[in-house]
């Protein structure tokens, strides 16, 4: 495509932006180019006091087309475009439009080979090594990832560790706290990891695999938007979901607070959340009408002498 300058973009936008809603005296829009498959656009028209003007959303499509032409021109490297409009104080005169393009390093997504992912895995493994013997192979692991190295947990790790201790076997998710791939936010994923304790003397290899796959599925649910870490911290324990018949007689899953933290992750520490399968009989006569049925969940754990 032929060169397309900022001034040409401003010229193309001026007529469209002058069709502002009544009362609007200025406007500002910020557009980001595609970052890890996602682009964004925000802003709008404003009144003289700086408050937002309802309407004028048609400007977004016009600005989006102009940003596309700037990208296609390839005359400058940028990932953000800021468009500003000011209404002319002289009747019948066009408003003033400026178009600024810039490269904002803070919104550059992490690449698939970023060191931050492995740093998170090393921190988790170091934590579990203090609690037992971490098996060399994973009890469960799924590698499906898109071109940005994102899995359903939004990072490159979606797996379960198996840890042998003197008192039993621990299964733990290993990836929910991996910093998200394809974005720049300084967050340790969904800010938690799950674990469950099993009686190694009374469980088969097949059953271990089933529980490990359950942890994978629970991780999928948590990574799908639930603010589980906050809710577990708030209530102490919550009744999270039901189990399929293959886990009979266990029918429900409780998620509860654990006093330990995994330290040394790229963006601080994250809490552990304990996963406890229970039978229906353990909460059969308990009121479950409160949020997350937390009273029933806490009662069932107290009967099992599990501290929260």
Key features?
6 helices; 26% helix; 308 residues; alpha+beta; single chain; four-stranded antiparallel sheet
Discrete helix count: 6
Q: In sequence order, what are the helices and strands, one letter per element?
A: HEEHEEHEEEEEHHEEEH
- How far is the N terminus from the C terminus? 63 Å
Question: Strand pairing plus helix content: what structural class?
Answer: alpha+beta
Mean pLDDT: 91
Major sheet description: 8 strands, mixed
State the helicity in percent bands: 25-40%
Number of strands: 12
Q: Estimate the strand proportion.
A: 25-35%
Q: Nearest-angstrom radius of gyration?
A: 26 Å
Q: What's the overall geometry?
A: elongated
Uncertain spans: none
Question: Could you please describe the fold and organization of this structure?
Answer:
- The chain is an alpha+beta fold and 308 residues long.
- The protein contains six helices and twelve strands.
- β7 (159-164) and β8 (169-173) form a beta hairpin.
- α1 packs antiparallel against α2 (58-73).
- It is elongated and about 85 Å long.
- The termini are far apart.
Task: Give a topology summary.
Elements: H1 6-17, E1 26-35, E2 38-46, H2 58-73, E3 80-86, E4 96-102, H3 115-129, E5 133-134, E6 140-141, E7 159-164, E8 169-173, E9 193-198, H4 205-223, H5 228-235, E10 237-242, E11 250-265, E12 268-279, H6 294-303
Helix pairs in contact: 1-2
């Amino acid at each position: 495509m032929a060169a397309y300058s900022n001034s040409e973009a401003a010229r193309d936008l001026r007529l469209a932006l002058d069709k502002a809603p009544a009362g609007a005296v200025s406007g500002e829009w910020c557009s980001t180019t595609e970052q890890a498959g996602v682009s964004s656009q925000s802003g709008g028209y404003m009144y003289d006091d700086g408050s937002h003007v309802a309407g004028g959303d048609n400007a977004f499509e016009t600005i989006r087309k102009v940003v596309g032409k700037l990208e296609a021109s390839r005359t400058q490297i940028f990932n953000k475009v800021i468009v500003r409009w000011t209404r002319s104080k002289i009747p019948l005169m066009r408003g003033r439009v400026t178009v600024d393009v810039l490269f904002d390093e803070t919104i550059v997504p992490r690449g698939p080979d970023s060191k931050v992912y492995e740093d998170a895995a090393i921190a988790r493994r170091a934590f579990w090594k203090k609690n037992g013997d971490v098996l060399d192979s994973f009890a469960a692991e799924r590698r499906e990832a898109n071109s940005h190295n994102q899995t359903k947990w939004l990072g490159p790790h979606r797996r379960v560790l198996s840890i042998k201790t003197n008192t039993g076997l621990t299964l733990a998710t290993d990836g929910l706290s991996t910093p998200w791939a394809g974005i720049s936010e300084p967050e340790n994923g969904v800010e938690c990891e799950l674990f469950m304790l099993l009686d190694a003397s009374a469980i088969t290899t097949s059953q271990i695999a089933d529980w490990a796959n359950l942890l994978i599925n629970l991780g999928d649910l948590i990574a799908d938007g639930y603010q589980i870490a906050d809710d577990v911290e708030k209530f102490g324990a919550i009744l999270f979901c039901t189990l399929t018949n293959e886990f009979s007689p266990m029918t429900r899953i409780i998620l509860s607070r654990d006093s330990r933290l995994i330290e040394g992750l790229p963006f601080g520490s994250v809490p552990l959340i304990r996963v406890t399968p229970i039978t229906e009989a353990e909460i059969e006569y308990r009121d479950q009408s409160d949020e997350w049925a937390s009273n029933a969940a806490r009662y069932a754990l107290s009967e099992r002498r599990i501290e929260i």
